[in-house]
Amino acid sequence: MTVVAMGMPAVRTGLPSMDGRPDTPQLVDRFGRVARDLRVSITEKCSLRCTYCMPEEGLPAIPADELLSTAEIVRLVVLAVRELGVHEVRFTGGEPLMRRDLEQIVAGCRAELPDTPLAMTTNGVGLAHRARALAAAGLDRINVSLDTVDREGFARLTRRDRLDSVFAGIRAASQAGLTPIKVNAVLMRETLGGAADLLRWCIEEGCELRFIEEMPLDADHEWARTNMITAAELLEALGTRFALTPVGREDPSAPAELWQVDGGPATVGIIASVTRKFCGDCDRTRLTADGRIRSCLFSDQEYDVRAVLRSDASDADIATLWRGAMWNKWAGHGIDAADFVPPERSMGAIGG
Fold it and tell me: Read out DSSP for 84-134?
């Protein structure tokens, strides 16, 4: 197998090992997991500069000819669903709203996959202007990244004063029927004091809040286990304002553990990726904006599906590569290991 050095994860261009793999079309791995949730990053560009995700100057631009095109994204998404057993698709970034052809991507997938759930993770900036068009194109729902409802805190964390735009985007999405709207909030030391305010705001706006433990996926590689907020700390902070009753997970592969808030019906979720890892139940497969198959957020092993796609390969050839990539998925992220090394790509470059 050829390995190409690119100053980033090693990109494999040959066929992955299939030794011992069962004869099934699904995306199985050596540990018995089956990938059914596809995350598709469509750009590295973003309108914000969140400290836990991107450097202040943004990520290096991907040359236009190295980005997957509208047609290529649609073809790979359709193949994943029809040939590989994917059940749900989510478009991510960077910030997917930075793609002018986002509506065309969604519409192309919807035309071919009328029954497949199509979702998007966005920071909400500018969503107010496109929510109706995205709904009309066939998008089902959205997740919005929002870490605080304090304007000054938002500006410090994202390096942009755009909170009002995010609020407008969430409300426009609700009016367009892109529901249920889930809000993703990364737990940070500087925003812990406002966590209860964020939960109250989400309940009042009809959004489902999910807190996420900060992971070592920042572009500046400044993450430290000793400084991160844990799920236990968050529960203690929220417990001063709300009565929380544990519910558990909606299904075994769902990353969020749920708590009922003040007797319900509202819930709050916590995705404890670090302290309560759920690698054993992971069901995700990832496609980066530059056309790499990635089996895990933390693995620097990537497979170049773009090159195969552009070599006039058949769908069967692409499916074989994808199956091999997932068969070689590792057991877990290993954050607790003494020799743990963060991945070369940050969250913004991989896709959330």
Answer: H---EEEEESS-GGG-TTHHHHHHHHHHH-TTS-EEEEE--TTGGGTHHHH
